[in-house]
Design a protein that fits this description.
This protein has 96 residues and is mainly alpha-helical. The protein folds into 2 domains: 1-29, no CATH class; 38-86, no CATH class. Helices cover 47% and strands 8% of the residues. The chain has helices at 11-21, 40-52, 66-86; strands at residues 3-6, 24-27. Strands 1-2 form a two-stranded parallel ribbon.
Amino acid sequence: MRTALADQGLKNAVVAHGSALGIDVRIVAHGAERGFVPQSKRWVVEQAYGTLTLHRRLVRDDEHRPASSESRVYWAMSDVMARRLTGASTPSWRSA
């Protein structure tokens, strides 16, 4: 990892830790707009998290090993990609 984006609330601690590890930490500044305004880089991450939480096993991380959690994320994203490629609108495991 070469670059990381951080929220304004974590300025000092994250920037110092990132510089110690050789990571360029950029602070994402919020605009003066009121209400919901999607930010380009952040929106991609939030969309991926939202898609992953559609799978029941990923709502809570009850796994003891990181490898188990990682395999469930790969499984969920493989399911998402397969649905997008086939054009299926609802997951096959949901009953109509």
